[in-house]
Amino acid sequence: MKIAVIGANGQLGNDVVAAFTAKGDTVMPLTHEDIEVSDVDSVSRALRDARPDVIVNTSAMHHVENCEKEPQKALAINALGPRNLASVAEDLGATLMHVSTDYVFDGLKNSPYVEEDAANPLNAYGISKLAGELFARRTTKKHFVIRSSGLYGKTPCRAKGGLNFIELMLKLAKERGEVKVVDNEFVGPTATDELARQICALSRSDAYGLYHATSEGSCSWYEFAREIFAATGTTVKLIVAGPNEFPAKVPRPKYSVLENKALKSHGLNIFRTWQEELHNYLGQRVKSPSVQVLS
Is 281 a catalytic residue? Predict the structure, then answer.
């Protein structure tokens, strides 16, 4: 198949390119220099001649605080962008695979969210991503909208300062010898290479629709940090942060664990537990210490 990957140089996009390439597909990596998703003419120019079979959209305005400051820009990229991609995909007869987020939920359920649960985003980022989902789902029939959570990978996410949570914890432990982490926010930490393989597997299906796609199980950020330090043999004093020690500038869901109900119902779920994914990431890190750090 011919695959167009939007946001190909990002944390997830890089691994999506690798996953499809490993399957023998012809991959067309597209970055912001090649395509502006908020401009339908740019989308059309970038995709019409190439005529991909599958369009994977990993691009987004991720920075939550910046989305709150610039909601119109967030809507242009995160909502109108998927609409434009879906419109062109429909015209080309291509399948659109659009990556969304756990932030479409308010975190009040306190048990894993399934695809049928009502969305209720708390901030501009979540609102814009939910709007993008709806545009994608209503604009083209051949769509996969894929929500994930707690992403980390070897490629830096520039919107989040370049360091994923694992690298940040190890950096702070080395520099300070003491780390404080909240234990009242819960997530399903998900490796981008694992999500990329799931996207690749899903692309072989025609079971279009909305999917949750995260590692199995869940933990607090404190529990995640504890496992990171234990797995790496890092000597550090790990402390539970006080309830108001790290006040959020923007409201965020405190519980954003997703259940891969739809993937499992179609026999398509390939995810392992979050612990297995973490240990695999750390193993790759030791064998090939190529994790990039932004200066």
Answer: no
Cβ atoms of 16 and 59 within 8 Å: the answer is: no
**Distance, CA of 215 to CA of 151 (rounded, Å):** 10
Q: What is the pTM of this model?
A: 0.91
Is residue 266 a part of any domain in this protein? yes
Catalytic residue chosen out of the listed positions 113, 125, 211, 281 = 125
CATH number of the domain that residue 127 is part of? 3.40.50.720
- Residue 283: inside a domain: no
Query: pLDDT digits over 57-77, tens only?
Result: 999 998 899 999 999 999 999
How does pLDDT run across 15-41, given as a tens digit for each residue? 999 999 999 999 999 999 999 999 999
Pairing of strands 2-6, 219-220: unpaired
- Strand bridging mode 143-148 / 151-152: unpaired
Its domain, for residue 80, covers: 2-157+189-218+257-272
Q: Please check whether residue 263 lies inside any domain of the structure.
A: yes
